[in-house]
Amino acid sequence: MTPETSNPLLELKNVIKYYNRTTPALADISFSIMDGQFISIIGPSGSGKSTLLRCINRMIEVSSGEVCFDGVITSQLKKRDLRKLRTKIGMIFQHYNLVDRLTVIENVLHGRLGYKSTMAGVLGRYSQEEKMQAHRIINILGLHDQVYQRCDQLSGGQKQRVGIARALVQNPRMILCDEPISSLDPNSSKIIMDLLRSISREMGITFIVNLHQVNVALKYSDRIIGVNKGKLVLDGSPDQLTTERISDIYGSTAKDLMTDSEERYAAG
Amino acid sequence: METEETINNWGQLCSDEMISPDIFGSGRPLNRESFTIRIFLMTLSLLTLYALFTMDYQGVDIAKATMDTLHNFKIIFMEPSTQRLGLWDAFYEVLITLGLAFLTTLFGGVIALFLGLLSAQNLAPRRITCCIKSFVAFIRAIPTILWVLIFAVAAGLGSAAAVIGMTFHSISYLTKAYSESFEELDRNVIEALSASGANWWQIVFQAVIPSSAAYLLSWTFMRFEINFANAIAMGAAAGAAGIGFDLFMAGGYYFDLKEVGLITYIVLAFAIVLEMIATHMKSNIHQKA
Amino acid sequence: MQQADIFVKRRNDRWIFFAVLAVLTVGSVIITRYDVLKGFTSIVKAFVWGISNFYPDIESMAKLPDILLKLRETVLMSIASTTIAAVFAILLSLAGSRTTRMSRFFSVMARGIASLFRNIPLVAWAMVLMLAFSQSPLTGYLALFFGSLGFLTRSFIETIDEVSHDAVEALEATGAGYFHVIFQAVLPSSLPQMISWLLFMIDTNIRDATLVGFLTGTGIGFSFDLYYKSMNFHAASLVVMLIVITIIIIETASNMIRRNIM
Fold it and tell me: A114 and A45, same structural domain?
């Protein structure tokens, strides 16, 4: 959306991550992403998608290599600056990761904690403006009837919208989504994906979305990155990729990816 | 700041009336849940303060007593040794305590198995489950030590009174645990079996007990762990045999802290092993579930 | 063939299980010198004796004010020791939980302290504390405090790890600081479960206070001991009845609170 800057928003250089000594979870991953793109990362379960995503906002530390966000090398950041970085990157989870016993508005306002002093955050003191903003976002996402409801009373799709609202209230430049629709039924999945896509278009926020379903990735993304066994095996725009090509790349594991998405969307 | 504007524009799209007027209040409305929590915590702190202020300190010099206690603990943990009790004797006494705990758990488990079946809501009529549940609640309300002493009047102080007395609490604990495990079994399974003509006993032994065996075993072991601690206490307070009695004699009669230290170490070793086994069993069940 | 194997294996497993059980039972009976016959006949004897002797009579009612005073002391002591142990247990469990720990070292330390305090027998606490604090209520209070601290810390650690792991991850990803995470995610999601443990602990502590009172000569345990040893069984039974009533009241109240907050 904003191509006037030629520098990429995010750049990964030779990222390697070892959990144990023997096999790397991520092996030498490099790519760069321009501002405003909608990018899907596909791959079978256990291929390193989640690890890759979490290396970007340093929820997981990389073993070697460099992650560069908006011109800043993230691995060099001290605690305070890391928090500042994370406020610029929203995150959405497969299991929504809400505090179930709190209300929708409280969960959404959690997105502002990165900007707050320790005391204000501990007491949950939010400014008038922050509350207004939160209410606005909640309204846009169609949750205005649930504002004061506890999150454990919501449906899966509603919970995920609370998760999205929490990410948006951060005023992020980029949002990372870790399997955002894997716990949802086909109908809610479609609503959530449409929502993510339109947020990306309207607000110019960059999206990196981990997906298990290839068809969804083909339908929504500007660009698809494929990983398998920690390696980058695929990088291109959807029109360059057919399902046949993908099954070539993934071999036997592709079957799992394809049938899953097929079934999922047969109903939707 | 571009994003900020976009969001604002979006906000204009949906009418401002949709934003409820009470947004200027706190984000956390006071519901029944948080109200109860607040009242409860307040009551608890007031009662605690009241207890601490009205406690009869009997002129104990707290600072001095604390220093003495720390000193005592240093002796216990740094210089454990034996005078009256050989190391081997101590181990034998622990074995006796383990034996008491085992017998208690066994008797309790067998009786609780039947009571558990009768108090599971998917296996027994409501009237019977209610009866058993209140019976079990009554048993639990009387402290173990009192059960033991009540039986000691009839059986005399010793292992018989201790085992029978401790069995009561085991029954109450295990009945509750077992019946909850049984209730996890799907009603449809029972329905299917009774539709095929199986009677109540057949259903119990072919479906209910096999499917909850792992849970039963794990709960029983946890009770064994508790009974081990109980058996020590009963040894001390009710003169039942075992390491508890030696602990009581060393601490309350001979004032021999070094021996208390030795016994504490031995008991700790056994207790921690039991705890580790129990934790392992629990995590196995969690994985299965 | 394979089906037959399964049945044979099942039967063998069952045999082994019951054989081990039998060996352990016989071993335990021998080692503890447990008189099986006496054990079971004593149940009947105890009930007959109980019905004819173990009930409060008019005379024992004169002791009621004394007993009530001791009961109040015991209940207050149990509540105070549980509450204060809970405060310390929250700190220890935050340090010990995998979700909220600051460093691996502190986590191991906190778990070690919990395990140590939980597994040192209550009798040992009571005996040692009595040496310095003598027969004052403080002895019982401290003995209960240390036991509760161990138990509550372990329970709280389990609660925090079970309940709040996901939410903590999300808040850390938004850039929230350590204390934000504790107060906005960990405590709100685990407080009800923690309170449930607290209620359970108060209940347990009242019963254990009887035992500690017995050993240290304080509270309701001492009252029972006194009447029991002087063979005043009518008064002793009054003590038991009052304990039962107290425990049932507290249990009912606990269940009510649990229903409201869960």
Answer: no
Q: What would the pLDDT profile of B197-252 be if each residue is shown by its tens digit?
A: 888 888 888 888 888 888 899 999 999 999 999 999 998 888 888 899 988 888 88
Residues A79 and A182 in one domain: yes
**H or E element at residue A211:** strand A206-211
On the CB side of C229, how many CA atoms lie within 13 Å of its CA? 10
Inter-chain contact A109–B18, Cβ cutoff 8 Å? no
Chains that touch B (3 or more CB pairs under 8 A): A, C
The Cα–Cα gap between C190 and C262 comes to 10
Residue of chain B whose Cα is closest to the Cα of A131:
B23
Select the more confidently predicted residue: A242 or B217.
Answer: B217
Highest mean pLDDT among A40-54, B10-24, B237-251, C142-156: C142-156
CB nearest A132 (choices: B6, B23, B29): B23
Q: Which residue has the tokens 């792992």?
A: B214
Question: What pLDDT score was predicted for residue C134?
Answer: 82
Q: Do residues B244 and C121 lie in contact, with contact meaning Cβ atoms separated by under 8 Å?
A: yes
- Poorest-pLDDT segment among A6-20, B9-23, C225-239: B9-23
Decide if B136 touches C, using CB distance below 8 A: no
Q: Give strand pairing partners of A208.
A: A39, A176
Entry pTM: 0.86
**Closest partner CB to C79 (pick from B44, B69, B96):** B44
- Residue A35 shares a structural domain with residue A60: yes
Q: Do A59 and C170 touch (CB under 8 A)?
A: no
Same domain, A219 and A238: yes
One domain, residues A218 and A150 = no
Q: Please check whether residue A35 touches B, CB under 8 A.
A: no
Are A105 and A160 found together in one domain?
yes
**Of A139, A166, A169, which to mutate for an interface test with B (greatest number of B Cβ within 10 Å)?**
A139
**Rounded to 5°, angle at Cα C252 from C198 and C50:** 105
Q: How many domains does chain A have?
A: 2
Q: A3 CA to chain C: closest CA distance, Å? A: 27
Q: Structural domain of residue A215, as residue ranges? A: 1-88+174-193+206-268
Q: Give the residue with greater pLDDT, A217 vs B289.
A: A217
Give a yes or no: residue A136 inside a domain.
Answer: yes
Residue range C58-261, CATH number: 1.10.3720.10
Q: What strands, in cross-sheet order, belong to the sheet with A10-18?
A: A24-33, A10-18, A64-69, A72-73
SS3 A35: coil
Sequence ranges of the domains in chain C: 2-53, 58-261
Tokens standing for A51? Answer: 């690890």
Q: How far apart are CA A153 and CA A101, in angstroms?
A: 9
- Any domain includes A132: yes
Mean predicted confidence (pLDDT) in A142-152: 91
> What's the CATH number for B86-288?
1.10.3720.10
Minimum Cα–Cα distance from C209: chain B residue: B143
Helices (H) and strands (E) in chain B, counts: 12, 0
Average pLDDT over residues C17-33: 90
- Residue B222 is classified by DSSP as H
Residues A185 and A158 in one domain: no
Confidence of residue B87 (pLDDT cuts 50, 70, 90): confident
Nearest-CA distance from A229 to chain B in Å? 26
Chain B contact set for C141 (CB, 8 A): 55
* Binary contact (B55, C77; C-beta < 8 A): yes
User: How high is the pLDDT of residue B287?
Assistant: 64
Pick A171's closest partner by Cβ from B4, B13, B14: B4
CA distance C186 to chain A (A): 8
Convert the pLDDT of each residue in B10-54 to its tens digit. 444 444 444 444 444 444 556 788 889 999 999 999 999 999 888
Is B144 close to C207, i.e. CB distance below 8 A? yes
> Is A78 within 8 Å of chain B by CB?
no
